[in-house]
Amino acid sequence: MQHTLSILLQNEAGALVRVAGLFAARGYNIDTLTVAATHDPAVSRLTLSLQCDDAALGQILQQTRKLVDVLQVAHPAPALAA
Amino acid sequence: MGIFLVNAQALQAETTTGRRPLAGQSMSGAEVIVQVLADEGVGVLFGYSGGAILPVYDAVFRHNAEHPRADGNEAMRLVVPANEQGAGFMAAGYARASGRVGVAIVTSGPGATNMVTPVRDSMADSVPLVVICGQVGTAAIGSDAFQEAPVSNIMGACAKHVFLVTDATQLEATVRTAFTLARSGRPGPVVVDVPKDVQNAALPWHGSGELLLAGYRARLRAVEQSVLGDADCGAFFAALMRAERPLIYAGGGVIAAEASAALRAFVDEFGLPVTTTLMGLGSFDSTAPLALHLLGMHGTAYANYAVEDCDFVLALGARFDDRVAGVPDKFAPRAKFIAQLDIDPSEIGKVKPADWHHVGPLRRALERLTAYGRAHGMRPKLGAWHAHVAELKRVHAMNYDRASTLIQPYAVIEAINRHAQGNAIVSTGVGQHQMWAAQYFDFRAPRRWLTSGSMGTMGFGLPAAIGAQFAHPGKLVIDIDGDASIRMNIGELETVTTYGLPLKVVVLNNVGDGMVRQWQKLYFKGRFASSDKSLHRKDFVRAAQADGFAWAQRLERHDALEATIAAFLAFDGPAFLEVMIDPDAGVYPMVGPGASYAQMITGDFIASRAAPAAREPSTSNMF
């Protein structure tokens, strides 16, 4: 099933790589990925979509929340659209 | 200079009261790093110097010159390995044995990449480390400079977190934050990559302050503040009181959480038998009547049968990994209820669904459950289950060929154990010797068993033992190693004698990669591709002597075992013992890859209660 996640990320060296690397290391294929600035220059918003089942999605959300640079993970994505 | 002109006593007094004795003073970045280490109470560093980390090494040297100690030791001892990997495992051994954060400092490029294995190993086993890497100057990053490596990329994939400090004004807060990250929540290694110009920058010292890390801290706070409510406790005990055969499955999280005493109190109150993972050995006294020792692929037969028979599992800081629950659906197949306590939300239900769970600090959760159960008069009636467990332990006890004239490795461990009595710190390499040590030693308290559990890194044992000896200078520390494992970091033999450590190094020599051979016998029709070392020429005893071991012997006759072990352990100083063991000795029991506990092979000397498992085809993709 197609899922879209929205991730608020601290703009630190290598932060984007760590998110992408986590998905790669755990075997999840990212279908689309956009990175955008937010009103806070220290924070970026990643929006990414991927195909996975619900059990895998739960793990992805939990593992992504373990990344130190990650401020917030929302699924479905619009929850962070404010 | 005039920066560190504070005498040691005065500094100690000030650091314990205010921690800002030097606030406002100007320091170099390197001095800032060392001052943060000093404030964190770091007394020993493991590392190897090099071009891009020279300023920090120089700052350590000056710090020690300016802070002489009454006992003559250096305030911040610098332990130099043969290879940076050794430094990483020394820091990890120090951390595992002490519960404190281990610190390693290495240079850029190869220094940092040699540190990758210990960092990944520590991540996989949740060991708190702070690793400081030199990096080429910020202007040179990305230019393929000499000794440049993309450390934040490489380490980002295997550490709990990595910082590349490009803004020197953030250095102090970053290094301090690294310690907080390493030890908080689920512990792990944190890497701080510091370009050389940042080490040389002139900075004001603040004496306090950490990075914000709003997301991490909010999640950490939520976990640390979560409390087991009455409803949760009630639901737990309702299920427990329905159970007739409840079992505790305790992992390394119990040790990381310093929850052993809380576990003991819980067991004393409610009477659940306890089996431990490889990482959990020592979390519960393995000599206690309700202790079932190790479970899993090479667990005791009685522990694995108890897992087969139980109807309730309480998983404590354990993650159902593939060496325990190789086939998750068949793990504890009769368990009607699985309860799971962990500090890491991602572990809940990751492998096996939990019927009840709590995410939070383990010690507090156990204490809360004990208090609730006590207050509500919960007394599970487990007499029949206790009798069953005792019978499993009696009938399916560990055993081996005691009549053989070849030296049996199990007998070596048993002989050492009779001297150590669960009080020594034991480290291991990886392979058969590691499993024999796990099976045949008694584990009476936490942090005395240092082994590379998840990563399974050969070469771990010797440097980890060195680190542990620095953490506990007065304790008996024994490295139980294999002939193949010790080769991986054999350069560290010299480190033992350089620092005069009274380490005891045992090599169980079966002339090859014993565990690989065991699998080749079982699954590859005995084709010993690359695992036979009978053509290798190394004389381990002479190697140890060349590295300065005054006591170095080879044991080849089984009738000399007891006397040799006694002399070896009694020697006052570094000692090295090579034991030529039965090369065909296997590790039993064994739950083969892809097999259930019911299909466990128990070998010729341990009673099985089932027909032997059908051998897996050699094409099995399980590992």
UniProtKB/TrEMBL annotation, chain A:
Gene Ontology CC entries for this record: cytosol
One GO BP annotation of this record: L-valine biosynthetic process
Enzyme class, first EC level, given as a word: transferase
UniProt xrefs under Gene3D superfamilies: 3.30.70.260
Keywords: Amino-acid biosynthesis, Branched-chain amino acid biosynthesis, Transferase
Associated pathway: Amino-acid biosynthesis; L-isoleucine biosynthesis; L-isoleucine from 2-oxobutanoate: step 1/4; Amino-acid biosynthesis; L-valine biosynthesis; L-valine from pyruvate: step 1/4
GO terms, molecular function: acetolactate synthase activity; acetolactate synthase regulator activity
Lineage: superkingdom: Bacteria
Stored InterPro entries: Acetalactate_synth_ssu, ACT-like_dom_sf, ACT_dom, AHAS_ACT, AHAS_small-like_ACT
E.C. no: 2.2.1.6
Domain ACT: 4-78
Catalytic activity: 2 pyruvate + H(+) = (2S)-2-acetolactate + CO2
Keyword match Glycosyltransferase: no
Family indicated by similarity: Belongs to the acetolactate synthase small subunit family.
Known role: Catalyzes the conversion of 2 pyruvate molecules into acetolactate in the first common step of the biosynthetic pathway of the branched-amino acids such as leucine, isoleucine, and valine.
Subunit structure: Dimer of large and small chains.
Identification of the protein by name: Acetolactate synthase small subunit
Organism: Rhodanobacter denitrificans
